[in-house]
Amino acid sequence: MAPDTKSRRAFVIGAGVSGLAAATQLAARGMAVTVFEAAGQAGGRCRSYYDPAMDQVIDNGNHLVLSGNGAVVRYLERIGARGALAGPRRAVFPFTDLKTDTRWVLRLNGGPLPWWIASKARRVPDTKPSDYVAYGKLMFAGRKATVAETAPVKGALWERLMRPLLLAALNTAPELGSAQLAGQIMRETLARGGRACRPRIATPTLAAAFIDPALAFLERNGAKVEMGKRLRNLVLGNRGALALEFSDVTVPLSERDMVVLAVPPWVAKELVPDLTVPTEFCAIVNAHFRFPAPKGAPPIMGVVGGTVEWIFAFEDRISVTVSGADAIVDRDREDLARTLWSEVCRALRIDAELPTWQVVKEKRATFAATPGEDLKRPPAKTQWRNLVLAGDWTDTGLPATLEGAVRSGDAAAALALRRGGL
Questions:
Q1: pTM of the predicted model, to two decimals?
Q2: Residue 17 to residue 63: CA distance in whole angstroms
């Protein structure tokens, strides 16, 4: 006899990517799913909105997906959005060094044997094949080691590839970052070859790719999504969660109900006081310019030697991302916009005054991906049988990436189904 899922309820607290990943998995299995989101819209850090200053829809930030991000690919397939990512057919990454005005294109070969490092035309300028071997140590690092304790943190390869790559992935000063997390990124990207490293960008917006199709999927499967519903209190008993208390209603929970707590770590800590969570965070600054990308501009360009780190080119705008941005996050917004636009002009060879712009700052964008903070990350499983956790800050084995967020939601859903005997 098939398991009776329709008589069981699942309450997902948080409609960010991790919460939506869990909700869609549970709804696909026939559970009666309700999603509660404190904000007025879904998406969390992966959201899009109409910006009056820009007079267009923009993303709060930029999320680069790689073709080897299996959890993201399966999530998009589940919600019917497989074609929502665009990018080149091969793993090519244009870079520019603003200090030296040097330009190059990193060209990975498709398979896992990295013969591209033997070609001067494919590898980073001023590097030799032996330089790359030293970074293999990251893939075997212990959990308490930093990147600086494990691999070189100087030289052309570090400055022109490894530092930008790890800064983007860890959103933390990479020298201080967890070598184990850095190694896992390498294991799932560069070590797997170009077929796993093709860059993919949400088109036309993050919401169109990751959020709106998920909400439509939930509606088709009978799930409810309630916005503006902040959980005030999670009533916990000795063995399980007993009730969800909102400002206007209390939802009692039965033994057969499941709760997926997919909220930021500081919120989870308030709701579950004995929970250990990361307590140090790093900022991200994104800027958007209402200026059509020049003809032939690559969809994504890495930048070194400046403040800008990555430039994303769209038909109607140019966006930039600065990870690990604690040093600039408090700067005046217009001053930041002018600095970033001047670097965009140099990188893309544009001669134009500052166009209409928007700067988006997130001071607590991700947990600091240091060994100490990584050790604070809890698993999805809790001591309460009907309560599980989701979020890129949980112990996914990855830093706080989109892939990690989806994996956390998938893990929470799988655990919820197992705990229910399904």
A1: 0.96
A2: 12
